[in-house]
Write a structure and sequence with these properties.
Heat Shock Protein 90, alpha/beta, 11 helices, elongated, Rossmann fold, disordered N terminus, Helix Hairpins, five-stranded parallel sheet, five-stranded mixed sheet, 51% helix, 378 residues
């Protein structure tokens, strides 16, 4: 029976100098869905293992030249092959030899003459264990990454929340001392209230960033749908209305948008982060031009161009790194927005990036899969 690539359960390297043993094992394992490699002595086995990196090695102990014990020792000392499970095949019944094998790093052993069902059971057991081990390692790496991000974010947020909170408390104390029931608020009092409002907006944006980071980190796959980009941009304009008024920002966008697949709440956050950065780090006043073009037949690139000073090569390399501010001396922030954009876009099967030259502003973009190559919004 021919086994297709999709049906292969794993790659097994058989190391045995007896052709009859190899032939029987080869046919049996191939029939049970495994891709089988063969080496007839230790030196060749080490070369094949390093090159092919099989999922498991069946290793005979008694071989001419480099025996199974020495072969195992070399494989376990090699960074590329040390994690491959090794099952010894041995006619030796001495417990000392079995213990020696385990001390060298073998995962299991099979006593000759070999019983096919036992071989299959032990192989499946080791491969399942290895798959679980790999999953745990990947989860541990991801968890460590998220913990580092959240730990750094917690420290940064604590620092960034402190300033607007102190402003709210200070302005509120001042208003309490100056206001009375018998006198209406004057211009200075109204301006103070606006400062309190801006401090509140800043705290809300920091909290929203934290919630989005937590949501993206724990969310698996989301159900995507065709996006009404004009409506999404309108929602972002409403959210950032106070900021656009404060910066006197100009926004240009096309009448029609190509239709992409995505998740509306996340795409709204992408635009909100890009537009916020364009206002903070753009010209005076900021000018934001939005647009879209086809990256290829299956993906649409959405972009925003600002009129700021542009980025250095060093800044470009760090722009999507968590807690990095684009221009540390020109605007405050928690340095997380563009990192979140990258994580969100990757979850939506796209990519994020920037094109820039010093003195010519920045073009930040993200790509999304197309919903229909011929359709556009009305």
């Amino acid at each position: 029976m021919k086994i297709t690539t999709e049906q292969v359960k794993g790659t097994i390297l058989i190391v045995d100098d007896t052709p009859a043993n190899v032939s029987i094992l080869f046919d049996f394992l191939a029939e049970n869905g495994y891709k089988v490699l063969v080496a007839q002595e230790g030196k060749r086995a080490i070369q094949k293992a390093e090159y092919a990196v099989p999922d498991l090695i069946l290793l005979d102990i008694m071989m001419p030249g480099i025996d199974g014990f020495e072969t195992c020792k070399i494989l376990k000392s090699n960074e590329k092959t040390k994690e491959i499970p090794i099952i010894f095949m041995t006619a030796l019944a001495d417990t000392i030899d079995k213990v020696k094998g385990f001390k060298l790093g073998a995962a299991d052993y099979i006593t000759k003459p070999i019983q096919h069902e036992e071989v299959l059971a032990r192989i499946n057991s080791q491969l399942n264990f290895r798959r679980l081990q790999k999953q745990i390692q990947l989860h541990a790496i991801e968890l460590e990454k998220r913990n580092l991000e959240l730990d750094a974010f917690a420290r940064t947020v604590a620092h960034d929340l402190k300033n607007p909170l102190n402003a709210v408390i200070g302005y509120t104390d001042m208003l309490i001392g100056e206001c009375s029931l018998n006198s209406p608020p004057n211009e200075e009092t109204i301006e103070t209230l606006h400062l309190v409002q801006r401090a509140g907006y800043k705290m809300v944006s920091i909290v929203e960033a934290l919630l989005l980071l937590a949501g993206v980190s724990k969310q698996g796959q989301v159900e995507t749908e065709p996006l009404n980009m004009k409506h999404i941009i309108s929602q972002v304009e409403q959210r950032l209305g106070y900021m656009m008024k404060e910066y006197q920002a100009q926004l240009l966008q096309p009448e029609q948008w190509p239709i992409a697949l995505g998740y509306s709440p996340w795409v709204e956050e992408i635009w909100a982060n890009y537009m916020t950065n364009a206002m903070k780090y753009g010209g005076n006043p900021p000018r934001m031009e939005l647009g879209a073009d086809w990256e290829d037949a299956d993906n649409i690139r959405f972009w925003i161009r600002d009129n700021g000073p542009g980025l250095t090569l060093e800044a470009q390399s760090q722009v999507f790194t968590p807690f990095t501010r684009l221009h540390k001396d020109s605007a405050e922030g928690h340095g997380l927005g563009l990192s979140i954009v990258q994580q969100v876009v990757e979850k939506l099967n796209g990519k994020a990036g920037v094109e820039t030259q010093l003195g010519q502003g920045c073009l930040f973009y993200f790509t999304l899969p197309t919903a229909n190559s011929d359709s556009k919004e009305e």
